[in-house]
Amino acid sequence: MKRRFAVAGVSLAVVLGCGTLPAVAADSRTTTDTTVSAAPDVDVNKVKAHLNELSAIAGRNGGNRRSTGQGYDDSVAYVKGRLQAAGYTVTEQPCTSGCTSGAGPNLIAEWPHGDANNVYMFGAHLDGVSAGPGMNDNGSGSAALLETALTLAQQNPAMRNRVRFAWWTDEEQGLNGSDFYVRSLSSGERARIKAYYNFDMVASTNGGYFINHITSAAAAPMKAYWDSLGLQPEENTEGAGRSDDYSFEQYGIPTSGYAMGASARKTSAQAAKWGGTSGSAYDPCYHRSCDTLTNINTTGLDRASDGIAYTLWQRAVDTGTGGDCDTAGAVGNGGFESGTSPWTGNTGVIGAHTGGSAHDGTRFAWLGGNGSTSTESISQTVTVPPGCSQASLSYWLHIDTDESGSRAYDRFTVRAGGTTLATLSNVDAGSGYVQRSVDLSAYAGQTVTLTFTASEDYSLRTSFLLDDVTLRNG
């Protein structure tokens, strides 16, 4: 990952030794979630074997794999050879503008199956800095991506969407390789890319578990996998705008990705939940000569590799269990735990309010409860996957009122676009949260704005406490 400053490109992470991260099973497949388990286990020992090869390449070429040197070209040749042998369509794309003089090519590999109009891209930068061999930055992301691609080829599942892998040149000098690639695409080709996933420094020895745009729909399967391991991932604030996903963001393509951190320092709260040393950099060897094979956290590398495979399977593989009805994360931040985005409207109603409680976690949306004439709404635009013939919007609602009798004075509505799907009122008040749902099957394949609204009359309050909004298949 590159620095934000005008330096000859850099990456993000720091390293303390060989990893003292949380004692949550080193095998990231230790989970009882059968949906997660449906994706293949990427063998971390094979990922490390790729790292060994990249390290040896650096050793033969002045100790580094910078984009303008033979170490980079040899890295391209190694990755390309493995992919071609596995059956990929592989292209070397010379960077003819915007890249450092003498920089090697991007490497693009497409699995030639699935709907070519729905492309999911997975990428990592293959170049490193001149100071060292770049094993965490970014041998880790490159090796994890390569073994995931080889696992896909070995499994050879039925595909519903197209998968494209990329290893970028000249990232350390300013995201130049990925920027050239996206600029080179026609508007139609960009439109076919439904999401881009980036992996930059996924084995930091004092690292944390970070996800780019963690509350977005693109991030949903990535977060779901790490959530299944109890990792409590956080937003990748350190990496914002500093790696190749930014090139895609600039053209409006949804992005996400995994990272474990660079030169920023781990907080005491992060050390408490993830292990490691607070006050020290996530990767103490960031852009240094010590970014060698000893600077790799195997547990983190394993969890990232398996999370990449899980995301790929969710987005592109026909699992036979729901077709293309992947509803995971269709509603972003449905539990309100990650701020207010992507909700719009009266977002001040979202928070950890005193006087009320969440259904789960600490935050919820408190609509109404004013005891005077008022209307409050929150909205979010979601896409219902086309295969969801029985989609439903589920939510938990606690209605508390000072009204009495059987007359509806204060109302709560759920709308999809301009259509009201449900209306509740003070008459429906109860002692706690009740799970409710509305049918969204008619919106399969459509993008629609969902709106929750509370309206009160001039006196006597009614509070509508909303939490854990999700889209379900069924």
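the 2nd protein, sequnce then structure:
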Amino acid sequence: MNFRVVHLAIACCCVLSTATTYGQDLKKGVTDLAHVDVDFHIQGEYSGNVTHADGRYRTVGLQVVALGEGKFDALWYQGGLPGNGYDGSTRFALSGQRAGDKVTLAGEGQTVELQPGYAATVKNSAGGVIGYLSPMHRYSLTTGAAPPANAIVLFDGQNTDRLQSVKVTPDGLLEVGCETKDSFQNFTLHAEFRTPYMPYAKGQARGNSGFYLQKRYEVQILDSFGLELQKNDCASLYKFKAPDVNMSFPPLSWQTYDIDFAAPQFDVDGQRTVKGRITVRHNGVVVHNNLELENKTGGGSPEGPNPLPILFQNHSNPVHFRNVWLIDRNATPTPSLAATNCCGSAVPTCVPEMKCRSGRVKRYR
């Protein structure tokens, strides 16, 4: 027997046993790869070339989402994955079920067959193979970004002097529920976060947290991987505006926010004279570009001239954070993130990340 097949079979049996032992964790949220189930290793991103009805070979992307008990949904993207080639046109849904270690997805006349560790096979309605999609692991270009000399380090894995109501995991990750001791008016925030694996959860119960800037304006955190975005999904300005593109990575992937925030301005009578503005880069791609804020979002505190702390929202899900730092632009002028793209070039909007030659996508055979 082929060694690779033997190794895969052993791995799948181990994962299934682990999933049985830690079944309760799957409901509450898994934060340790040792406790995931077999579905986790099928869920993820795929990309490759497929022969279309006109006979032309074109790149497509696929995001596969685990729903528990061997059930899966997926989104097919024409041109490639979001932020890496998707052209904003054709996008359609597929769904399917796992049988053993194999998953078959179907939709729009396409069938996709997946197995952990292998390329996905794409077939047409007649059963003919029309292409293969490779599993991919993407990472943000700003992952691990070092704080500049003028930055205020909020969390580096050890020091928590700038935060209050702090809890840190034994392996040095920041938990939800804390807030900054200081209040900030205009700033640039870099933060890295990881949503848990919660295949049985739906909607707002799936890896929910968020950054409440000035305790007023929430940049939502949620496991929105592979979803059609709404105004309460990941990187949304909560219930105000959905992001321009869904740059969510699968759960248990480290993701980044780079947020440029300018607070609203008020006159001596407390009347707002200038609206606040925000630019958000999610995993290195601009998803809100110099957006004008009409008011506070969701359950945020009322707008006002006084600055307030930044809150790491506790929504009872085990979302974790690392490498969080801030540049106070009232103290030190810095360039606006809205004026740079993901490669650092001075352009008004971010170009697709594949243009940035930094090895952000890892391909598997």
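Residues 1-22, 334-365 have pLDDT under 50 and may be disordered. Residues 75 and 227 are 8 Å apart (CA to CA).
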